[in-house]
């Protein structure tokens, strides 16, 4: 059943990593399944070109192009087919329209994904029946101001990673929380992470795993040269400040979710706060976060007998 797009049309944006054959195949399947259920598939313009180059069959006539036939705010949902990196790209595209993102894992761990590739039919059935919940995840806003007063802003779902700009030098930083100085040290970098990002870069840097339901922000030093440079968990409404000390003109950079960067000259001050706009993730399953941890990290649970 193909629905003629109109004011009441349901639109779903499909985002994938089209450099991979399995991603192309999965995307084509999703497009056709949505079309059969009367939902308008939406693609980015370059995505349509890549799909047409790799598939002999024409796309359904109902397919629309983002920013040409519709805007992101016209979409009900964004379905992302890929790993966590592709899902973060989907979140970036969905955020201006405040649209929820549903990830289907085609990568390795896929911690942000809600389902696996072999569940594609069930995923589309749930979307068609509107049988999904929307979960709001805390995001971090980043505010940067250098010594000349130049200001820049950014945001992150997983983490803002402040990193040294010169490989051969350390980064000298001073950290303050809620306007009170806490500690200074040399390091390779500092992560300002969310609970969602606690299983990503923060986890690799020695930070704690934080359940998504916990409202908090994390400060995780990377390779710090100091006795008191352990990961910190602060209140969700705290203001995290970080100043880069001038050191022979050394500079730094902040990466937001590894996708968007801001240059940080020496003497720059970085402020991290809870974003007023959370990120929306669509959920099909209500499995506990513990179950997700065990499955994604393949944790050993042999010998567990359960509560009496």
TrEMBL record:
GO terms for cellular component: cytoplasm. The active site is at 84 (proton acceptor). It comes from the Bacteria. It is found in: Cytoplasm. Keywords: ATP-binding, Cytoplasm, Kinase, NAD, NADP, Nucleotide-binding, Transferase. Its main location: cytoplasm. NAD(+) binds at residues 84-85, 89, 158-159, 169, 188, 199-204. It catalyses: NAD(+) + ATP = ADP + NADP(+) + H(+). GO terms for molecular function: ATP binding; metal ion binding; NAD binding; NAD+ kinase activity. Its EC number is 2.7.1.23. Its cofactor is a divalent metal cation. InterPro entries: ATP-NAD_kinase_N (IPR017438), ATP-NAD_kinase_PpnK-typ_C (IPR017437), NAD/diacylglycerol_kinase_sf (IPR016064), NADK (IPR002504). One of its GO terms (biological process) is NAD+ metabolic process. Belongs to the NAD kinase family. NCBIfam families: PRK03372.1. Involved in the regulation of the intracellular balance of NAD and NADP, and is a key enzyme in the biosynthesis of NADP. Catalyzes specifically the phosphorylation on 2'-hydroxyl of the adenosine moiety of NAD to yield NADP. This is NAD kinase. The lineage of its organism: Bacteria, Bacillati, Actinomycetota, Actinomycetes, Micrococcales. The gene is nadK.
